[in-house]
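How it folds:
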Amino acid sequence: MRRFFGPSGSVSRIAIESQALKNNLLGDPALRIVDVYVPAGHDEQGLPLLVVLAGFTGSGLSHTNWVGFRENLPERLDRLIGEQRMPPVVVAFPDCFTRLGGNQYVNSASMGAWEDFLLHEMLPAIEQRFGCGGAGRRGVFGKSSGGYGALTHALRHFDIWSAAACHSGDMGFELCYLPDMPAVLRALAGVGNSIERWWQQLEAAPKHPEGSFKVFNALAMAASYDPDPTQFLGIRLPVTFDTCEIIEERWANWLRHDPVVALETQADNLRRLKALYIDCGEKDQFNLLYGARRFARRLDELGIAHRYEEFADNHTSVDYRLDESLPFLAQALSG
């Protein structure tokens, strides 16, 4: 619902036929929709480009839908730009939803080559079509899995992204993922420890059973961080089925994707950013606050410029935090 009744920007919808995502193990479509916001009264030519990565179970397209009682993201951008709280920017909303419920925005033999799609197919298509972005003028942001994706892309691809914002992003993997493993194993035990049977029952059910989120979230993370194409949908867990003990070689593959761990070898990439924003709720129910604190503390120790904030809320319905990060990113990219 709109809260700003000044000029409204436009949202265009384009389709990109991805070569990187063709023949992915999940059977997900390679044709991907991207919504693109252009602010009112501005020629998109020469404007900075921001890309939003959706949280798990979401899509970029959900950000452009009508929402009751609060603004959707284009309405928020209209207000922030219209009230001159941030410079005008073009914003891309890619649909990266998958059969497993979402995306971590990394290349995976199971999920698909999502990094390649975003960097080498989506970005060129948007920039050529709208004349925006370019070197030094690109930023990426998101919340939860989207925040993880934004931070991971900043760590890995400083040559592409010049600014990043991570809201309540996945990090500190032993705190945000391992606590769910006993519940995952109890659910799988009911189908003879068969991931395939459990998933087929989930897809056939008229609604997702209560408590199923922890299970399919863990399975999706396994397919992202430690895929095995010989297994059903490429999924294998990092713990034993009978005793829930960590399988060291499996868990090591997960940890390589943890931003807290990756920072030790990729910190210099973050020094090249024009802006880095990180926040998390003090009551985050997925324990993400502790990983965020570890990450921010290490940034301080390494002397890497960033803005870190904690706020008095949990993980849910915190889009209002974009009022802080979006102006921060846009101003850095417009300088």
The mean pLDDT is 97. The first helix runs from residue 73 to 82.
